[in-house]
Amino acid sequence: MAELPQHLMKNISDSEVEVLSWSAKSLELQLLIEKDIGPESGVIKFCGVGFVHMQPRISLEGVSIATSEAKYPEEVSPEENESLYILHESWGREFYVVAESIEYIKNV
Q: Is residue 12 left, alpha or beta, with left meaning phi > 0 and alpha meaning psi from -120 to 50?
């Protein structure tokens, strides 16, 4: 089962996230994240992306991984090698990325 990068999750509440790039050819989605606490910025990189339900810019409360099909939205059905990543917006909405992996690259 996939795991979330620990350094991504540190001080993630009230972060600003925006789509940096999307490539259907390489199946890669990159999100720029600006953490309010720290302050810290970096890139969330999803690889092997099969589905995206995302707005161009959101305030992020947190990220989780769906652990059972009961949490999957109707239109989402990850393959065996994929995970459903749930991006929890600060105002209660949820956005989804189905991908094979996630990584966080912290800007120095």
A: alpha
Q: HSE on the CB side for 20, CA within 13 Å?
A: 15
Residue 28's alpha-carbon distances to 84, 97, 105, in angstroms, are 15, 11, 14
Which residues of the chain fall short of a pLDDT of 70?
A: 1, 70-71, 108
Give residue 96's Cα distance to chain centre: 7
| Strand-pair partners of 41 | 34
pTM exceeding 0.85: yes
Q: How far apart are CA 78 and CA 2, in angstroms?
A: 13
